[in-house]
Records
---
Amino acid sequence: MIFVTVGAGDFNSLIQAMDELAPALIAAGEQVLLQIGHGAFVPQHADHFRFAPSLEPYFDQADVIVSHGGIGVVTEVLRKGKRLVGVSNHDRYDDHQDDLLAAMSARGHLVWCQDLARLAEAIAQARTASCTPYHEEPGQLVEIIMDFILHGHRPARG
């Protein structure tokens, strides 16, 4: 199954692009399911829903997940070791999703689709890619707290 998620917002161009790809994918025996959030575009060729209490069951069932570049969904999917196509949503107020997707792609964790015209290629690439497992690196907050507990040091204010 290919599962597409846009999270709590909308990403009409991604949903429309997947809906256009759906007939060929379905004809090839693939199941396509779209989570469309608050999007205005309603798919005509693929099963879809707006929201669910949790997306975890869909992540678990999917062979490939296609998602916007939000940090929450990206890290949740990668923690599960799933194949992920991260798609830049250029409708957002800035290109912060590009920063995350570029970094995760450079580390080999996902396939970054920067152009929806190449979405089918990105999905095909994700199916065969040998992605690097994702492990979260500990943040500095833990180190600061431990240093304070053990040594009574407080970080210098800048």
Note: The chain has a mean pLDDT of 90.
---
Amino acid sequence: MGTNPTLNVCLGGFLLAKIEEKIETLLSDVITNLGYELYDVEYAKEGKDYFLRIYIDNENGISLEDCEKVNNAIDGILDKADFIKERYFLEVSSTGVEKTLRKDKHLEKNLGEKVEVKLFKQMNGKKQIIGILESFDANNVYVKEDIEQEIERKNIALIKTVYDW
């Protein structure tokens, strides 16, 4: 009997998310004590390689030295915890000017801000909506373009803040 590739992808995504949660719990206090916010943790497979990305932020912005400081503080902790069995590359970086909003805490912090929403399938003839993040709930995100748009979360590929250059 063959395997179900859809199920494998879903289970793989679930397992990656669980690793992200464990790592966030493990590192949150350490990074906070260094004077930074642990904004997000992303564990992803790209090609044949795995990447563990730790995104940090603070009010003053993030420099290369800040990333190095956090990297040095967490590297041994991650090795000791041994949550990840595969070989991976650790990357510590800033959230960037345009922040990806993956979690409710990110959405909450950016209510009233301009966002770009990319969709898996068209909605009203569009695959992208840019507007003000009005609100959200467990199933939907509400963005105001000319009128408020109700967007199902399951149709959202990406939400990020928009910086007007």
Note: Residues 5-33 form the longest helix (29 residues).
---
Amino acid sequence: MNIIKNFIDDEIKFKEMQNLLISADFPWYYQNTVSSPTDKSGFYFTHNLFIDNKSTTYFNSVASPILGRLKFNHLIRIRANCYTNNGFAQTHGWHVDGHENHKVAILGINDCNGYTEFKNYDKFLSKENEIILFEGCEQHRSCTQTDTNLRININVNYI
């Protein structure tokens, strides 16, 4: 487990990414489950930036600044996640992002009291431009925020 503050060292690039993701123009897609198809603990919105070996429209704007700092051989998936404020802290189910041997990076886009919790570690509040790097076999779960309208992060799965 590794935490890196100010992960994207070009503050202008980070702010451009943040402004895009928080804007009314960024397309978010409703997901009726968070951790697995059977987990009914909540919902969230996502936008796949890279999946099935294909990048999407916003890949360069959002994913490129992150990938420029990660060491990887192969990308599996990059997804932007958006959690809404439900008026209470809603904890989702434990999960791993995939069963193949891989690594995960979660980059916080905004500060809030929502967090990512790990079964074998602690919980980490969402912090602007702070990334959590961990092994894909680590069970984790998300929790929604109560102090901001949105909690946004970028989830990268890679080898």
Note: The mean pLDDT is 96.
---
Amino acid sequence: MIQQIPVVLDDHRLFLDGLCRVLESMTEVTHVDEAQTTEQALQMLDVGRGFHLILADLSMPGLDGFAFLTALRQRRITTPVVVISGTSEITDVRRALDNGALGFIPKSMGSRDLHAALRKVMDGEIFVPADMWAAVFEAAANNSGKIANNHSDNPGIGPRQM
């Protein structure tokens, strides 16, 4: 199995420490890097640190998680991104996916489910909790015309990715 190095972005030290410990317990993970600001995470990515996965909180001071996703797209960073958030609002989940996240994990999720979710994303799948799946993709179907007409707002993302 390929060894993975994720970077975790969260501004709450206790949550960040706990999430890093959970990730370090995964057999695929050799080391976890952490950032407490989006600017710090972008600097780490800009200097070419090779990460296999980015886990990012949406609610961050300064540059929020959505702006962070936009900055990743603008830099053409293709590392899979999973949003971990205290919110479970369907509009936030959909917006995160529309902006390039490959997964959305509520902070209320347990560590076993977290392991399974991250493995799905690393295998190329999109992860959204089962109880949110229908609502998230129903919202996408209702907005498909709007999304299709907004390619200029999504540089580097093609119709298939949308």
Note: Residues 147-152, 157-162 have pLDDT under 50 and may be disordered.
